[in-house]
Write a structure and sequence with these properties.
The chain is α/β, with parallel strands linked by helices. The chain is built from 33 helices and 20 strands. The strands form five sheets. A six-stranded parallel beta sheet has the order 10-7-11-12-14-13, sandwiched between helices. Helix 1 packs across helix 3 and helix 18 runs parallel beside helix 20. The longest helix is centred in the N-terminal third of the chain and has 29 residues. It is elongated. The structure holds thiamine diphosphate and magnesium ion.
């Protein structure tokens, strides 16, 4: 068996030419962006030429040989130029986009599913997240295949990983989850260049990785020596050379690589020179040949890479490839510890151009300087398996969802209970829509009220697993049975994993061609733990519903550490996420019904003239819910009220013409807001009560309408502007929420009303809800005190002194 059994010598030669081309084009793209295009403003961005070069051979082998159209890849962020170069060679990227790399509407600095126009599978940028995304995408592929059998070929989810990227904890959290869930079809290819951004990394990390991956059930393939080195090791003295390489510290290997052939010779002769045959081995090579030999690590050697990848395609076990590389290989920057942001000088680029036989003025020509004729190269590219003509992205048809959701509203209940009941009711059904709901939670399934749904729909696992408590006839409220048909994915506590799982589930329509309705639950304060992953999921336009409960200080006795203050502001600021904080279960039902439609949308439409929100573009949804039982309102929700709830607010009590005070509240403090109105009634006329269901959407609509007016659409009015239009100018507004007061504090800016925002600003106490609301000043009395202070009138008789 030869090393390149599955590839002909001609094809191997072509691959070697393409590798050179990838290296050239990626270096040139960066050079062009920095030295030619943007030179006028003198702004130089990070180099990343070295980072990209490190992966040139690995990506050449993968994209032009190993990958199949059904495979999906997360490319290390700084290898973006390689990715775009490969797409350009495959005819899927334009020269204009490359020339505008990192510029306005140009190819993106880091591969982007949403902003790039070439074939990016997973965005990357914040290191570690794209890696975990491949793992969860493999699990989602298994989920989809178990629920919606199809004859689509199974794909492999591949991450190209920087070695320093492996420091990110979320990767290990994901690996543990992968082990629990029986991960398959996942490859992580580690670019083991032993350099990070700042420096050269610790010695011997590979053996830690190897042990870790094996512990989690992965195959580990070490691609250390290229074919030149392997051949040299077979020569007399070769074993001594191998021993030297294996023992060489990372720093020294990098430094010698940077210095080149003569430095290699000097050092090797010093260390090995008097050991007979190895001297001849060294003497037989020129300085250039010696440098090429020492630089021929496995990760730069196509035959070694192809052999490793080919072998692993025969099974579906998760596989980690540790590929030894040199950061900046093939460039003047190779090996230098400062090369991360380093850029080749114009003179160095000139000499690279010459060595690549690229004529000046022909830098962008696809086959320039290659020795294989253009037709042969094109013929090869035309048969690259990965480069199908059809789109590799799927589309899933819109799934009909109910316009109203059934729920029995009890006289007093919390929004969290309402959520549990809404899902429980959904769980009775068997429509296509219900079959596509998938829930997941990081070990808070029961405490976020998903229990009744799980009882009906079971947990997902590829193999059936009975609930031992049930088979032992021990009474339990919950039926914890696993089956391939189960619709709840149980996760360990790691919140990062929840968000990456949602990111993978929420892209299933595009990756797998099957629409899912993912619902993830967690405690509101722990959003912060997975915030970067949440942002990542939104950036990729994954679609899901995030249910965060309990929240705020309203969780009272659970104590200060669990109280979330800033999450509504996250909800407002997070792009791609519509945040709601309903107070009543009928509001929640309306919001959830709307959400199932909203998360499916993917239009390019202009903002709606009704609310100035981009509802046709769709997005994900965040529901901030509470465990506080609240007396429910008996009412039927008509179409107008439904619209208003979705748009973000409605008048619970419309302010009259003589109104002096408006109270605006959101979420669990509704009873306090209502009580305060009662307390003020005798001394303030026509007090208004504004129920805010989404500060996020109100604010976004307001901003958008202002922008529209500035652009000439003089009649543009947002929902909140219309609601507030009749509030007299002298009126004061008191806003109140169980969160940072900035959440609603901006309401006064709409028409210039004096406003006092009540909320929570400091870490919490433990106590009962009345204790805490009094302590933080969000109870009825505090609302009244604020009203009296900003909207003078006669003293309010029921006001008590504040503590
Ligand atoms: C979460 C996060 N932190 C920091 C950075 C900044 N950063 C970009 S690349 C990098 C180090 C990359 O080292 P490695 O993964 O080994 O890739 P190499 O540069 O060697 O190719 C860092 C710290 C980032 N992109 N994401
Ligand atoms: Mg590195």
């Amino acid at each position: 068996m030869t090393m390149t059994q599955r590839i002909s010598d001609t094809d191997l030669k072509i691959l070697a030419e393409l590798e050179k081309k990838v290296l050239w084009l990626s270096s040139w793209t960066i050079h062009h962006a920095n030295h030619l295009r943007d030179s006028a403003d003198g702004l130089k961005v990070g180099g990343h030429q070295a980072s990209s070069a490190s992966l040139a051979a690995i990506m050449t082998a993968l994209y032009f040989h190993t990958l199949r159209p059904q495979d999906r890849v997360a490319v290390k962020p700084h290898a973006s130029p390689n990715f775009h170069a490969i797409q350009y060679l495959l005819g899927k990227q334009t020269r204009e986009k490359l020339e505008a790399f990192r510029g306005y509407k140009g190819a993106q600095s880091y591969p982007s599913r949403t902003k790039d126009t070439d074939d990016v599978d997973f965005s990357t940028g914040s290191v570690g997240l794209g890696v975990a995304q491949t793992l969860f995408s493999s699990l989602v592929q298994d989920y989809v295949r178990a629920h919606f059998p199809s004859n689509k070929p199974e794909g492999r989810m591949v991450a190209l990983v920087g070695d320093a990227e492996m420091d990110e904890g979320n990767i290990f959290e994901a690996m543990l989850e992968g082990w629990k869930q029986g991960l398959r079809n996942c490859w992580w290819v580690i670019d083991y260049n032993r350099q990070s951004l700042d420096a050269v990394i610790r010695e011997g990390l590979w053996s830690r990785y190897e042990a870790l991956f094996k512990a989690f059930g992965w195959d580990v393939v070490i691609v250390k020596h290229g074919s030149l080195q392997q051949a040299a090791f077979k020569e007399p003295g070769g074993e001594a050379l191998r021993g030297w390489i294996d023992n060489c510290p990372n720093q020294l290997y990098s430094a010698l690589t940077f210095q080149g052939g003569a430095a290699w010779r000097k050092r090797l002769m010093n260390d090995l020179g008097d050991q007979g045959p190895v001297t001849r081995l060294l003497d037989n090579r020129s300085d250039d040949e010696l440098a090429r030999l020492m630089g021929n690590l496995g990760g730069h050697d196509l035959p070694a890479l192809i052999e490793a990848f080919d072998k692993a395609t025969t099974h579906d076990r998760p596989t980690c490839f540790i590929c030894y590389t040199i950061k900046g290989s093939g460039l003047a920057l190779a090996g230098h510890k400062d090369n991360h942001a380093g850029m080749m000088t114009p003179a160095q680029m000139e000499s690279l151009r010459e060595s690549m036989h690229v004529r000046a003025g022909h830098e962008w020509d696809r086959f320039e300087g290659l020795s294989t004729p253009g037709e042969a190269l094109q013929a090869f590219l035309d048969r690259v398996p990965f480069a199908t003509k059809e789109s590799r992205r799927y589309q899933a048809p819109h799934v009909d969802v109910p316009t109203e959701l059934a729920v029995t509203i009890q006289p007093t209940m919390s929004t969290q209970m309402g959520f549990g009941q809404l899902l429980n009711e959904l769980g009775r059904g068997n429509s296509d829509f219900v079959k596509r709901i998938v829930t997941t939670s990081p070990d808070v399934t029961v405490s976020t009220n998903l229990g009744p749904w799980v009882n009906r729909r079971n947990l997902f696992a590829r193999e059936k697993m009975a609930d031992t408590f049930k088979s032992e006839r021990i009474a339990s409220t919950f039926n914890w049975e696993f089956a391939p048909s189960g619709q709840h994915i149980e996760l360990g506590i790691a919140e990062n994993n929840l968000f990456i799982a949602l990111s993978a589930l929420g892209l299933s329509h595009s990756i797998n061609g099957e629409r899912l309705f993912p619902i993830g639950t967690l405690y509101d304060p722990f959003i912060a733990r997975g915030l970067d992953a949440l942002n990542y999921a939104c950036y990729q336009e994954a679609r899901f519903i995030l249910v965060a409960t309990p929240s705020g200080i309203t969780l009272a006795g659970e104590g200060g550490a669990h109280q979330s203050i800033g999450t509504p502001l996250i909800g407002m600021a997070q792009d791609g996420l519509a945040a709601f904080e309903p107070a009543y279960v009928d509001e929640l039902a309306a919001i959830m019904a709307w959400s199932f439609d909203y998360i499916q949308k993917g239009g390019e439409g202009q903002p709606s003239e009704r609310n100035w929100l981009r509802d046709e573009t769709g997005g994900s949804v965040y529901l901030r819910l509470s465990t506080r039982p609240v007396e429910q309102i008996k009412r039927t929700i008509d179409a107008d009220l439904r619209h208003a709830i979705i748009d973000g607010a409605y008048w619970m009590r419309k302010p009259g013409p003589n109104c002096q005070v408006v109270v605006a509240y959101t979420g669990a403090v509704a009873p306090e807001a209502i009580e305060s109105i009662g307390l003020m009634a005798e001394d303030r006329r026509d007090v208004g009560l504004l129920a805010v269901t989404s500060a996020d959407r109100l604010n976004a609509g307001w901003t958008a309408a202002q922008r529209a007016r500035e652009r000439g659409l003089v009649n543009a009015r947002s929902h909140i502007e219309r609601l507030m239009a009749d509030v007299p100018a002298h009126c004061g507004i008191v806003t109140v929420c169980d969160a940072h007061p900035a959440t609603l504090g901006w309401l006064g800016a709409i028409h210039g009303h004096r406003t006092r925002g009540l909320g929570v600003e400091h870490f919490g106490q433990t106590g009962s809800i009345p204790d805490l609301y009094r302590h933080y000043g969000i109870d009825a009395n505090a609302i009244v005190a604020a009203a009296e202070t900003i909207a003078p009138g006669r003293p309010i008789r029921y006001l008590k002194a504040l503590p």
